[in-house]
Specification:
Layout lengths: L4 E4 L2 E7 L2 H7 L3 E5 L5 H23 L7 H12 L2 H13 L2 H7 L3 H8 L7 H15 L9 H19 L1
Antiparallel strand pairs: 1-2, 2-3
């Protein structure tokens, strides 16, 4: 515990290095907090509390059973579809079709879109699954191993947001 407790000037601080695999996900390499005390005994108690809190945080970040919230999935998909490549692809499709065609095929567009991207030898369902995984990774869930349920929800959200955009 004493390795996390440091004295700086008159007060104490808590410093703990974030494990390398979690640094990208957490967005920092070190946790540094003032303990707001000059009394060593109080500083030890506060450092112990922070140590336990950081242990729980690291455990949560490495938990493979963690499920993404619907808001996380929505934000990841929105962030993925806002990329210039997607906007250009959707824009081309909209510009190439008449309003009547867009109205008639708007429900099918999310199913047709995967055929327009990537290698034609790869089935459309596989392309959409890849897009879902890439959307999660692009949103910063790189160290996150998405469950099949999270991937399915992400695929559905991609379809939903594309449908809304075309409408």
């Amino acid at each position: 515990m004493s390795t996390y407790l440091r004295r700086e000037a008159d007060s104490f601080v808590f410093r703990r290095r974030v494990p390398a695999p979690l640094q990208a996900r957490l967005g920092q390499s070190e946790i540094y907090r003032s303990l707001k005390t000059t009394v060593r005994r109080v500083a030890r108690q506060r450092a112990a509390s922070l140590y336990l809190a950081t242990e729980r945080l690291f455990e949560m970040l490495t938990d493979d059973t963690q499920i993404l919230s619907d808001a996380d999935v929505r934000a990841a998909v929105r962030y993925w579809l806002d990329r210039e490549e997607w906007q250009n692809m959707i824009g081309k499709y909209i510009r190439r079709n008449s309003p009547a065609n867009l109205t008639n095929y708007r429900g099918q567009f999310p199913e047709l879109l995967p055929d327009l991207i990537g290698d034609e030898r790869v089935p459309a369902w596989e392309k959409l699954r890849r897009e879902a995984v890439w959307a999660l990774e692009h949103a910063g869930f790189k160290g996150y191993r998405a469950s099949q349920e999270d991937q399915r929800r992400t695929e559905e959200e991609i379809r939903k947001q594309i449908r809304e955009h075309v409408n």
